[in-house]
Amino acid sequence: MGKLGLDIDKGLYLGIDFGTTNSVVSVYNYDDGQVHTIPIEGSFICPTAIAFDEDFDEDEKLEKIVGLQAKEGAVIYPESTILGVKRLIIQDQSSPVIVEGKQFDFAPVHIAGEIINYLKNQADEYVREQFGINGIFSGCVITVPANSVDKQKKRMKEAAGFAGFTEEQVHIRLEPAAAAIAYATTISSNKNVLVYDFGGGTFDACVLRIEAGSEEPSISILSTYGDNILGGNDMDKIVMDMIYTEFCTLTNNEIDLYDFSKDDGLSKKHKMMARARLNQVATAMKERLSSSKATKIVMAPFIQEPKIININMDITVDDFLNHKRQYALGDSMDVYEKMKDKSVLDLIQETIQCTDVCLQSGSLEKTDLDEIFLVGGSSSIPIISKMITEQYGLEPHQSKISPALSISVGAAIYCHMIMQPTSEGVSISEKTIHSVGLEMAGRRYLEIIPAGVDIMEEGLTVSLEEPLETNFDGLTSMVIVVYESMLKRDRHTITFVYDEGMKRLAGTSLEGIPSAPKGHEKVQITFHLSKDYILGVTAKSLSNEGVQTTLSVEALY
After folding, report:
1. pTM of whole model > 0.90?
2. All residues at 6 or more sequence positions from 203 whose CB lies less than 8 Å from its CB, including other chains
3. Other Cβ atoms within 10 Å of 106 Cβ, number
4. Is 540:511 a contact under the CB 8 Å cutoff?
5. Which residues pair with 538 in a beta bridge?
6. Where would a tag sit more exposed on the chain, N or C end, judged by fewer CB atoms within 10 A?
7. Is residue 557 part of a domain?
8. Structural domain boundaries, residue 89
């Protein structure tokens, strides 16, 4: 393996697929145009897990353990381990850990930053050992689900700051677009490609147009749609539910592992250990059933107090696919209500429904698709390929790149494209995916930024052609509500915010408008969309006593 031929101003480019369950980091080799996925503890896939322990050198500090060791240690030390931080990152409350009886509270964004820093350090160590150079990273692309909200994108950029990246070095891009870049390097003809991205915590569908071209392949996003609470973790919970149902039968429902207040003879610590073990066994069983028709679960003992309970179960693929979930298993009430009575087949069917909406929002038919590209570890379950083939009449593309690695590989190439835009390689057309606009009187929708508009390097700024006017005498405030139109429509057709495909993003109120007769006071509205697909809206009174408010939209795309 040759050295990376890097000038000091070129640097190294990282691509990070920060997943709910697992994360992957890749580095772009500027010298030969190749991407190297970084092995961590013998695997390209690193569990997105962190654990804390006493730091024996400094009493006030905690030792941090990231990756496989943290995930495996969760069975013994569940109270000091944090899993699934990606789903927590948009929450404002802290995540508690308990180490030697003391509670410590961490913001999820800080936890994400620690994990990103670990991935960065692993990449640094790899390039030092393999290429004999210092890992000075000039840029980083971190991917997010296509349906992620603005808050998640902002928090991921903030987390990268904790890992030592400056704001200018961090670029947020959509997971399906990154996966498409990895795929685009392997084809030689023009195609409409459906990216079916089924990860640990989220599902995304994205349709892209890839122009192979004679020189540089180009990619443009035609449509995207997804669900941020639909992933492999939810399949794991269904398997856990199968095992937990057996546990409840064996204990006559006398022990509740998810109720710490119940005096049933099992301590909180042992309940947490049993839950962590249940999770790990369920995940392993799901993976085994992806390549075999049946498997056996033996946990002897599963618990030892207040009495010994052994679990011995034979589970078939049919059991795995058709079991209906009954228990909350620690999920929030909102998530539980969404997942109750769902089977694995039901969840897969929901991903196909999302994919259908994605096609509809892009005014596309099944027959418009030339290729289907599977992304994300959960997409490797065999039944998924079968159901997709039946639905769309296309067998998924058999890529040389693992579905679990493609996002990170594409992200590294993406970062190179951003940092070295004059270099040859795949180019991607950054365009608005859906239109965004305002709610007007009569609940009408006024489009401000259309779909399919190019987003420049400095972002896209659009102001209303005509400022809004106060529509009552003496009005001193104006409500500003932002909507996204998920379906393509003729701009001249009257659309209402309650129509199909309309999505409310955010709202605020501009206060302090000078009291005046109807129509006298005017307010200018400006939308700014960054390359990271982060939307800001400014409302400003145009009078001499003008006031201004800025709305940070939290739910875009």
Report:
1. no
2. 197, 226, 227, 230, 231, 350, 351, 354
3. 19
4. no
5. 526, 550
6. N
7. no
8. 1-176+400-429
